[in-house]
Input
Amino acid sequence: MRQGWNEKNRDLIVNVNGNLVHRDQAGVSPFDSAVQGGDAVWEGLRLYEGRIFRLIEHLDRLRSSALALAFEEIPSHEKIIEEIRRTLAANSMRDGVHIRLTLTRGVKYTSGMDPRLNKAGPTLIVLAEHKPPVYSKDGISLVTSAIRRFPPDCLDPKIHHSNLIQSILAKIQANQAGADDALMLDVRGFVAETNATHVFIVERGTVLTPHLAACPEGITRAVVVELCRSNAIPCAEKDISLTEVYRTAEMFCTGTMGELAAVTKVDGRTIGDGHVGAVTRRLSDLFRQLTTREGVSVA
Output
């Protein structure tokens, strides 16, 4: 998966701590915690016809991550929503938009990793871009990465932090292999997620997804599980090995930036019949219906 340049984004207005500036003039201090040590948390949001889907769930996760990192100050949901509204209005945005929220610990008075050096903060960045779902609806390819996902005793994946080096290294491997993204395993050798999304397989009509031991608490993942339960589609969490991936009838990945996308090839092996499967297509349709009627109005 390779994202291209969108001319609509040439003159974006970006929100940095309430200051609305052109993308070319936007910046953060070299003393900001995100620059100093990746000390920040983030969320990805999607705008559908003036509404952000599952906005409160995303803001709850942002707050949870900031609390886990002992941020002294965390903006309220109302404050963040107001800054989102201001940013969207400044860009005249209403649909087909992806929003990247970043909350850093703030600015330090001198360089160093110690949070006690922070005397100003936090820093809130709202970056809204014209960006439709980034994955092909015809299916994507994955390659298994040598980079493993951390277990909770190394770095708890429930912290949705901005230090994405693990994912970047895995993505580099996928790029070199000519795949769209990388499939990442946990330290036991079971499937965790991709470098950017959660994964599901379909085995004998049952939708299966890995436990959350080595992957984040995905918002879109949770929606898919809800859709399965409310539409009588069998669904379960379990440890999934690569053997189960290779022999599965269907596979798909989920995320805010790409919604639901079928996986049709892993490590050069064709998944199922190499096309979008019936269960994947049904869940994609159900997800689309949900996004047309739910969401917090912001534009």
